[in-house]
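Progress report, Aim 2. The chain analyzed during this reporting quarter is listed below.
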Amino acid sequence: MQEQQLLAQVLQALGRFPTIPESFLQGALIGQQPPLPMVALHPDALKNLAEFWASLGNTLRASLTITVTISVPLFDDMTDFLVTSATTSASAGNGNADVWLHFGGQVFDNLANAVPGALVDLVDSGLRTRTGEDGRFVFSGVLAGAHTLRVVASGFQPSTQTLTVPGMPGNFQVTLMSL
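Predicted structure tokens for the chain:
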């Protein structure tokens, strides 16, 4: 009975804090956004308490389970990588799928500056687009395989190259030379 009263007091004290108070945190956990949530008596945790106590060689006892969620960065943020291709397919159930490829790239000048407003043609597909302010372009509904890409921009020599879709990110970067 005393164990249950003690657990009730602990649960009441923890119930006042929907997030872990910063005074209890250390290191990189301090100031983490969003604040670290705390959930007491998580329903899934109650399923195996009897197994837990049995594995310790004890009888079932009153206990309290607290779940804390923290953010753990796995990779450094990458700002220079460009997703260059995606595949979408749909099938009516007969096994024959229609496949659409989407790919994009970026146009630079010889000083590695983005070239906005460049005209980009996928010659053999009859597709045309312009680069955005960041020099990026995207084509949709492209068949897999080799294609001829032509880029024209004011003040630069035109560039024509063969590329394979899908391909590696670096394959879709075009460098234009100044006139």
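Strands lie at 38-40, 66-68, 85-91, 97-109, 119-122, 127-130, 136-142, 145-152, 159-165, 173-176. Residues 2-68 form one domain. These observations will guide the mutagenesis work planned for the next reporting period.
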